[in-house]
Every structure is written in structure tokens, then in C-alpha cells.
Amino acid sequence: MGGHTVIGAILVNGFYDFYTPDTETKFVPYLGLGIGYASVRNVIKFYDNGVVITGSKFSVNASTPAAQGIVGLSYYLDDFAAVSVDYRYLTTKDVQPFDHRFNTNSINFTFTGTFNVA
Length: 118
Hints:
Structural class: mainly beta
Number of helices: 0
Distance between the termini: 59 Å
Shape: elongated
CATH class: Mainly Beta
Strand order of the largest sheet: 1-2-5-6-7
Order of helices and strands: EEEEEEE
Radius of gyration: 20 Å
């Protein structure tokens, strides 16, 4: 038996930076929250001696609400650029017919900058 789950999500995220003006630190922690919608695809196959049994593939697609929590830290290179690392926990509502939530944890590295400073 073998299987996999694939998820695609569209989320709107809001962030709160704990930036304090007039400080010398270049490190700024932040929190975020995202809400949106996800498409989840679960696939399972049965094998006999390493060969897929004909007609044994079962696939279910479902759309469900999704949410994520974000905790991160930014390092400001200058007034117009920063690098960040954050942890994100994504979860969905129960996916039918499995009656189970999809959950994932991720570490993300980002660069934020501007191309034109006026």
C-alpha cells in the first residue's frame, strides 16, 4: 500500500512587527495569521510484489477552509531591505471522507526589498 497527500492553498496573511522606532537593533520579531482556502488531494494505491493492482487506485479531492499561524524574526540590512526566517503552522478543517485535518509545519527564509527608492 502507498499513498500521498498534495495541498494547494491561497491565504491572506496579516503581520504585526514588534519594531520600536529610535532603537539600534536590526532584529525585529513578528507574528502573523493567515486565513484562506485549500485544495487537498489524497491518493492511495495497492501493490502486489511492487506492481500496482489494476483498479486499486483511490483518489479524493476536497476543498476546505485553511488557516496558518506565523512566528518570525527579520534582520534589516538597511532601510529598504531585510532577510527573515519564520515558522508556519498550516491546518485545514476536517477533509471528508477521511474525517481528518491536514496539518503541516514549515520553516521559511525570505528576502524583502525595494527596487526603486524615491
